[in-house]
């Protein structure tokens, strides 16, 4: 990755700046000195509380979620050799959210803080495994995306059923909030439960980078180059499942980050599906932190949800990318 | 010199037999052309010989080692394979595409060792792609793209090359250019096996012809002795007139 050092260093710096701005901006005005004082716990106690218990966890949550979703998207696109692949489009997010909502519905989440992340990850892995099996049977990416649409719709239908049978307005609000996607009111402890899964997931995806580059030539040629296709599929499927599931345990469903970020990064890394992974993760993190700052400072009468904003911007972008995709490409 | 041989090889797709009872031994340092009508099982045979599909029966030996027992990178260092599909999924640059040929040695477009870099430069040179290094692969003509694929195969430095219809969709000039590349490869000690549909070109350039029909090898030998009207008739079901090793005309049988 030496070749992309300037790009990655730039994006990393952007990430630090974005997180710092997330600490700086908000309903309680803080000066730059206040933020430093709060961060180092040398300033006023209230500043420390605002920074460490409210703004920093929220910014971290946004960054980690964005990074996990963007790298998962980039890796799935590389594996399926299609720029429209993404955890949301392929039904991975929907299945994960469904599993998490089930846990909320039955009130299991209160038993242990690990249950919600575990359920979200289980749902995501189930969906990626399904896609993996489907990919073995069909060579067509269009079919896979249609399967994803089916999985998404079915998960959505089951979600509606759960909402329909919600025992009381409170649990209904709980579940709806979950599906909208947000990084508000997360504590560093909440993050700590999901982070290990995400880190392992992203590690697996990074390990798949060389194979993704090779897959540019198609599966047959990549196998001829010495790539073990089965290992490659497992790496990406488990990696994307862990990372997506972990991010959904933190933030609920946030769509389209995984499709827009790699799309923007692609020309910057010479369209190489292996080199794109790390820059996508960093840029995805920056994107969600920036979007979350915007949501917080926009004067709306109800709290704007990050997932709603992401979908409002992301869905038209998805359509745009689909139209741009040259018809001569692979299907 | 590289030795590749197959013994009693067969492959099935479900109940359908793709090919069977194939025995062959590639002539080291020679260009062997596998020819036969559509559906004869040529591509299936190539994927088996390249170690990408496990045969139903029989074994493929590469330099005295059973191909199915070799690791994929170990195999790739000795054998490079060019499938029919030349479409690239992403518009990467020419030099990055050629750099993928270093995969088995741990190289990637993002990180190339000194040895990788030298091999890539040599391959670009041989295939006359130096002027196109930075070009995006989706802006290339068919002829240029096929040279990119040969360059990435040569970059791996494997002594054995297996290519499936490398001349498809090329004009006569580029077909000959690619055949000269193959010739040069074998003259430098490489062993090559390619599937060709252009029988005249195969007869002109091949050292050995393998004739395949209905999943069986039916004849094998240098063009001088096997490129005959009889073989053209029983393998391709056409009336060919061959004069002095040259194809004069082909007509419906």
Structural features:
heterodimer, A: 331 residues, mainly alpha, ABC transporter involved in vitamin B12 uptake, BtuC, 14 helices, 73% helix, disordered C terminus, B: 253 residues, alpha/beta, Rossmann fold, six-stranded mixed sheet, four-stranded antiparallel sheet, 9 helices, 12 strands, 33% helix, 28% strand, globular
Task: Describe the protein's architecture and organization.
The complex is a heterodimer of chains A (331) and B (253). Chain A is mostly helical. Chain A has helices spanning 5-24, 32-39, 45-80, 92-105, 115-137, 141-164, 169-180, 188-207, 209-214, 219-224, 229-251, 257-265, 277-297, 306-324. By secondary structure, chain B is α/β, with parallel strands linked by helices. Chain B has a single domain, classed as P-loop containing nucleotide triphosphate hydrolases (Rossmann fold). Helix content of chain B is 33%, strand content 28%. Chain B has helices at 42-49, 72-78, 94-99, 114-126, 142-155, 172-187, 199-205, 223-226, 229-236, and strands spanning 4-13, 16-25, 31-35, 57-62, 65-66, 79-82, 160-164, 191-195, 208-213, 216-221, 238-243, 246-252. In chain B, a hairpin with a 2-residue loop joins β1 and β2. The termini of chain B are far apart. Chains A and B meet through α9 and α10 of A and α2 and β6 of B.
In terms of topology, how is this protein built?
The complex is a heterodimer of chains A (331) and B (253).
Chain A: H1 5-24, H2 32-39, H3 45-80, H4 92-105, H5 115-137, H6 141-164, H7 169-180, H8 188-207, H9 209-214, H10 219-224, H11 229-251, H12 257-265, H13 277-297, H14 306-324
Chain B: E1 4-13, E2 16-25, E3 31-35, H1 42-49, E4 57-62, E5 65-66, H2 72-78, E6 79-82, H3 94-99, H4 114-126, H5 142-155, E7 160-164, H6 172-187, E8 191-195, H7 199-205, E9 208-213, E10 216-221, H8 223-226, H9 229-236, E11 238-243, E12 246-252
Helix pairs in contact in B: 4-5, 5-6
